[in-house]
Description:
The complex is a heterodimer.
Chain A (H helix, E strand, L loop, with lengths): L1 H22 L3 E8 L6 E7 L2 H6 L4 H11 L3 H13 L3 E8 L2 E8 L2 E7 L3 E8 H16 L2
Antiparallel strand pairs in A: 1-2, 1-6, 3-4, 4-5, 5-6
Helix pairs in contact in A: 3-5, 4-5
Chain B lengths: L1 H21 L4 E8 L4 E8 H7 L4 E2 L2 E2 L2 E3 L10 H10 L3 E7 L3 E8 L2 E8 L5 E7 H7 L7 E3 H9 L4 E7 L4 E7 L7
Antiparallel strand pairs in B: 1-2, 1-12, 3-4, 4-5, 5-10, 6-7, 7-8, 8-9, 9-11, 11-12
Helix pairs in contact in B: 2-5, 4-5
Amino acid sequence: MILLAKIGVGVLGTAMVAGAALSSEGFIAVKVQEKQADGTHLNLIVPAALVPATLHFVPKMKLQDAGREIRPYLPIIDAAIPALEDCPDGILVEVKDPGEHVLIQKSGGSVVIDVNDHDDIVHVSVPLRAAQSSIHQIAEANQTM
Amino acid sequence: MKTSKVVLLVAMVVAGTALWAASPERYLHIKVNNPKTQELVRVNVPLSLAEQVVPAINHGDLKNGKIHVGNFNADDINLRALLQAVKSAPEGEFVSVQRPDEEVHVAKERGQLVAHVRDKGGKERVDVTIPWEVAQALISETTDNQLNLSAAIKALQNIGDMTLVTVAGEDESVRIWIDSNNTDAK
């Protein structure tokens, strides 16, 4: 009985540590809602820590073009993301017209993008730290080719 | 005695840190509004973000925080020399241009460089106010055809809340201003 309890505590502890590690960098949230009657409703919440790990399994060739395009902007990204992390939360950009509303804001450690137009409602939330490490990984994929 | 010095030092460091932490973020706000088409664009840029990002941009005319903007010496006017002259001049109007279709006035008012452009048809009005520190920062450590954007952003951090640019057109209005609010609620 004690042995079972010990195993249980071990499993629970491992699960908790794994959960903490996975959620340490926050979550990427993507929500897409097509406004048409039979439109798609997509709701995706992924631990941001999974993205760099997942990128390791993506063939380098597939990342080559994206990497090449990102590389010139790396210094700007590296300057912007830590600075943005230090900024207080708030709306960065808002564009409104009769048919569209776009909102880009910083909330917590994430950049949140909301788009509401004639066809869709889109919500994307990306933790800044995870974005930076993933962008570097993609850029390096181009370098190692 | 030694202990009191240490305590004093620690107190100063703590007070300094608290003061630094309490200093509010400054924002550059841009608002473009077109009531006719109901279009609205709002941009709120934390100056600390701009201060970090602008020097990192090396693209086109913007390099190392400095922007290349045509030729300041065009028409035999050297903007740098002009600013130096204006700095030491007393307050008042320096330039007044009257054209059939528009009026331009450039003046030094309350230590600020002020420019007003009026379309005589009443269709457009542009007012630009540049604090002296910002004007000087813009031309600091530059060659003739450069503006030091990085230095200007740093200088903007230290000025009070103020409107820098307003453009009132027939259809559209633009306002650019500085304050410590993270929204453009003002």
